[in-house]
Amino acid sequence: MIWNREAETMSREARERLQLQRLAETIAWAVARVPFHRDRLGAATVRGLPDLVDLPFVRKSDLREQYPFGLLAVDRKDVARVHASSGTKGKPTVAAYTPDDLEVWREVMARVMTATGARRGDLLHVALGYGLFTGGFGFHDGAERIGMTVVPVSAGNTTRHHLLLQDFRPDALAATPSFALHLAETLIEQGGKPGELGLRIGMFGAEPWTEGMREALERAFGFRAFDTYGLSEIIGPGVAGECEERAGLHIADDHFLPEIIDPATGASLPPGAEGELTLTTLTKRAIPLIRYRTGDITSLTTEPCRCGRTSVRMARVKGRSDDMLVVKGVNLYPSEVERTLLSVEELAPHYQLVVDRAVTLARLEVQVEPVPELVARCGGFSVEHPEIAALRRRVADRLQKAIGLSVELTIVAPRTLPRSEGKAVRVIERGRVS
Ligand code: DLL
Predict the structure, then answer these.
(1) Which residues does a 6 A CB cutoff place in the pocket of ligand 1?
(2) pLDDT digits (tens, 9 = 90+) for 135-151
(3) How far apart, in Å, are the Cα atoms of 95 and each of 1, 41, 79, 142, 359?
(4) Is the full-model pTM beyond 0.85?
(5) Which of 39, 112, 179, 336 is the most buried (most CB within 10 A)?
């Protein structure tokens, strides 16, 4: 099913015409109302989409400098809702919405959710946080737009989730991949069976995850899992999402214009090349953003999708450019380690990277838990047990081949690594001098 056939299947030419018209409107709107944009864009004229590359970027630091309302292009009184990022790395970045912006958000979320096979009457269990975080409200509003029955459980309180999942028997679950895994694991410990909850669809996002994680989630719950992408600065979840072909995420590019740039030089990169995703809002009125550098590493494709949607698609996000680790001169994203770990049957999908910066050349330790079946077979957990010791050597070897770096691999006892209730923290830095 396609939610908005006209918008989602329009021809390339019609789409580009619409994008150009909306881009010109957005620039005019921003320049007329926001000193920050006026100073930077001045009399910029965009005659064609390729002219976009001549415009300056907006960075997260610009948003912080304009905190809280410096980038508003409407009167504060015309803002219907405010969200914000968690602000773990400084002041939060503020997202604001006019009533029309909220309409756009509902529309793009309705598209993303319909693309997963969700439909009117399906019951959706929302296990994403409600509050300043956009996850809970984004899925909630989109589901109501489709006519789904929404259960707004929010994140945290695992026992409450178990009860409601078992009693309400939802058709779909929206969560971060790491929290969903935690829900499955704890439910099994309580004697429950996640695979028998009757869930058909899992909608995931808000953090990087791999195909291996998708398989682990699908094995545990017996549903099909879909990737949803978004960020609060642009709108929240709903910027892009997978359809049932699961061959990349369809970007709602009639509302958000994507580009890929080289994160080091800022140069524009062609379809297929991996780089940093940069987005321009085409319909946002409260805080329009032109060439916003998301920090997310991915690639784009304009190849047609079998589902019939004609939008540009983006690959799964590999990670944020600022989450990239440089260990002994090798660039590494946590998701690359995840990919290798999750291809090993005896390992559980619970891992953590510990980077020790106290030593001159950063050292990387990968900590990972074994599956409970292995521990049971070994008669309890011991790193010295021959099976666990052999597993350690085998995985260290595989990692070395996959990422080109010899890492210290530690197999830790089951349930020792922290579990996530929202976005998982995959990297722990030790000895960082700030
Ligand atoms: O995480 C919005 C969201 C909520 C998306 C629920 C999907 C589902 P922020 O808190 O502003 O917004 O964080 C945005 O999270 O720049 C990416 O680095 C990361 N991210 C979001 N979705 C994905 C994904 C929400 N599907 C930041 N894969 C983004 C990988 C993702 N990373």
Answers:
(1) 85, 128, 133-135, 205-208, 227-232, 236-237, 294, 296, 317, 320
(2) 999 999 999 999 999 99
(3) 31, 21, 10, 18, 40
(4) yes
(5) 112
